[in-house]
Amino acid sequence: MANHVIKKNILNDKVFYGFLVLELIICSYSFYNNEVMAGILQYYYDFSRFFKSGFSDSYVWQLEAPTFPMWGYGVILTLTSNKLLIIFAQQLLFLFTVWFTENKLKKWYRQPDLFTYRILVIFSFCLFFFNSILWPYGFNSMLLFLALLSAIEFIKGQKPVHLYTSGALIGLALNLRSDFIYFVPFLFIITFLFSRKFVTTPRNLAIHAKSLAILILLITPWMIHSYHKTGHVLVNSTNAGHVLYISLGQLPDNKWKITPLDGDSSMADIVKNVAKEPNSCTFKADSVLKKKWLELVVNDPAEYARKCINNVKLFIIKPFYTPDFYTFTMEPKELQKVKDEMSGYISGLKIGSIISTLFKYSDVFLFAALFALINFILNLFFWFNILKYLLVKKLAVLNDYVFLIAFGFIFYQVSFQTLAYYFASYHTNLFLTYVFLTVHTRSGAYLKG
Interhelix angle for 184-195 vs 160-174, to 10°? Predict the structure, then answer.
């Protein structure tokens, strides 16, 4: 009886969306003064000042990094610097995406598992907090997920406008973050192959070319800017070398003596004495660090393999963003020291030290531990359903374009973070994709069309 009442309330639109709004309000209030992105946020403000200067050649870059990061969030900060308004916009896009996804589930499946979908959304605390911070991940992850849904809609609905929309959304998202750019060819290959059933090859090629043109058009300003600043046309930012290099430091006690910190001393030495650049995110420093990373990996592939295995462990232990609104309980510097110690224990799988630190700073880590546990359980649930579906369907999944697109995106990002730098916040970009794919695996037999 109790289960029936719970299910009835969750499937009630007013109750469900009202509860989501309440969760967002609580998360925003408790997280409003969080400074987790305070460092990189200054780069976006630098871009904002550059835009306000009218793209002036005489503008003095305060952080001396004109091509890092991608400038999309700087555009937003130029339109408004009102923190409350930006966070409201991020959360509004999140709520719209949740509603839009549910409508697609109702449209595409005869018997969609809406109860599972809504339960997973309710427990997606990582996304509630994710969208309560000034950073590009909130907008970026929602735009990307909507792009995937539009690509699926193109195959199902046979209307070119949906693929054009997908291209536009990807183009906008690329201006916010560019680490998923290598997934785009795979997505277009899938949409092309599965749309051949209803579109002639010449017209299909034309539709995809137009969608790609829209995507390129939206990142052309960045390409012009990057060429003007570096003499090279770039479609991404110049921090790949920085990330790749310190990613080697994610292996505890590694032979390279590299740390996973932005201020790693060995990296600073390379930037200063080899690249002879003011920071690690200039074009030249980026190139030097990428070459150094490749050299270290090629010279010791076994150590690199150990590092990748360690990243898989991190993915299992801390799959999604764990909110740290507990910063209110101690001074920022003291908190950071404790967090760095805990990160080291987690990376090294030092269970005893993790438990003792949790007890010692229970007021700091109580909520963090709770949300980390929820994320751990959700990740297991996601992968249980995905692997079960793969075992049941076997090679039949190759005919399931919904699965191929959603799982392809997840596989790409997880592989990317295994080979490079694992960061739970990056993985959280996939959360709604996980939710959607899980519901698909539980409703796949009822797919319409």
Answer: 180
In the three-class reduction of DSSP (H, G, I as helix; E, B as strand; rest coil), residue 69 is classed as coil
pLDDT band at 152 (very low <50, low <70, confident <90, very high): very high
Among 27, 76, 23, smallest CA distance to 47 is for 76
Q: At 110, is the pLDDT very low, low, confident or very high (cuts 50, 70, 90)? A: confident
With H, G, I as helix, E, B as strand and everything else as coil, classify residue 261. coil
Reported as a pLDDT band with limits 50, 70 and 90, residue 432 is very high
List C-alpha distances in Å: 306 to 252, 363, 385, 427: 10, 35, 28, 20
pLDDT at residue 399, rounded to an integer:
93
Token pair, residue 97, equals 């995406």
Q: What is the pLDDT of residues 28-40, one digit of tens each?
A: 887 777 766 777 8
Alpha helices in 253-319 (DSSP H): 265-270, 283-299, 301-317
Q: Which residues pair with 447 in a beta bridge?
A: 109
What contacts 185, CB < 8 A, 6 or more positions away?
Answer: none
Enter the tokens of residue 304: 């690199």
Q: Give me the pLDDT at residue 26, please.
A: 87
Average pLDDT over residues 257-282: 95
Q: Domain-by-domain residue ranges, the chain? A: 2-30+37-446
Instruction: Look up residue 122 and give its DSSP letter.
Output: H
Q: What are the tokens at 293?
A: 């990373």
Dist. CA 384–CA 133, nearest whole Å: 31
* Tens digit of each residue's pLDDT (9 = 90 or more) over 72-82: 999 999 999 99
pLDDT in tens, 17-27: 999 999 999 88
Round to whole Å and give the CA distance between 223 and 232.
Answer: 8
On whether the CB atoms of residues 147 and 166 are closer than 8 A, the answer is yes
Q: b/e for 50-78, b at 16 or more Cβ within 10 A? A: bbeeeeeeeeeeeeebbbbbbbbbbebbb
Q: What is the pTM of this model?
A: 0.92
| Residue 5 to residues 2, 115, 321, Cα–Cα distance (Å) | 5, 12, 31
Q: Which residues make beta-bridge pairs with 399?
A: none
Separation between Cα atoms, residue 27 and residue 18, nearest integer Å: 14
Q: What percent of the chain has pLDDT over 70?
A: 94
What is the b/e burial string over 15-46, where b = at least 16 CB atoms within 10 angstroms of the residue's CB?
ebeebbeebbeebbebbeebebbeebbebbbb
The label of the residue with tokens 């050299």 reads 295
Instruction: State the DSSP H helix or E strand holding residue 196, giving kind and residue range, or none if neither.
Output: none
Reduce the DSSP state of residue 120 to 3 states and report it.
helix
